[in-house]
Amino acid sequence: MKSEEYLKSYFGLDGKVAVVIGGTGELCGAMAEGLAGAGAEVVIVGRSLEKAEARLAKIAAAGGKAWFHSAEATNKAELEGLRDAVLQRSGRIDIVVNGAGINSATPFFDISEEEFDRILRVNVKGVFLGCQVFGKYLVERGQGGSIINLGSMSAVVPLSRVFTYSASKGAVHNLSLNLAREWAPHRVRVNVLVPGFFPAEQNRKILSPERVASILGHTPAKRFGEARELIGSTLLLASDAAGSFITGEELIVDGGYHAMTI
Q1: In the annotation, is 165 catalytic?
Q2: pTM of the model
Q3: For residue 188, how far is the Cα from the chain centroid?
Q4: Which residues form the Ketoreductase domain (predicted)?
């Protein structure tokens, strides 16, 4: 077997349909590009077509297939509508990325109940509903599938200044492992992709020069990650061939941050 055929047999996603919730963002947008590049038909899900258009154009220019659907990740009825729309247009769903999320850098004693509830609603409820709506479809279909939930380094090791975000991502990690156990007999794999420090829209407001210096000093790679560097991990977790025995995994992509002590 030629090397190209070998790679395609393990990482190719021809005939698969991937739903990327939060695909209008930087990190999940890059993941959507990677899935499309591997042959999947990709549904980019968010609230703004304007944000999605540039990503859709890049996918189309590379010969991939993708389309946009507007949905609110915290609204079960909208996610059910999304599921039905994808099945009607694309005929199946094989891969789901739950990546909608928001952050804040409020000092602990100043965190309002409204802010706490808002972050928990998006980061935890959004993943809960995404898993419930699409996981039910995958389990009942009986053909397996892959759910990739976006976690955070702050759920692995405590990080300063992101109290509510850390708590919410800790819940995402825990929920994902619970579902991986429940759905493994149905060949539905649930994993957590854990980015380290990647400059993105939701964390730019907390990246002061002092915090950047602290992060880089604690990262053996001495740099931030680039969104495209999540693609390889995404394809591994999405593939029924390469990732067939991977479930309940917290796959960290962080340039060595979590390995650093002193």
Answers
A1: yes
A2: 0.95
A3: 16
A4: 16-186
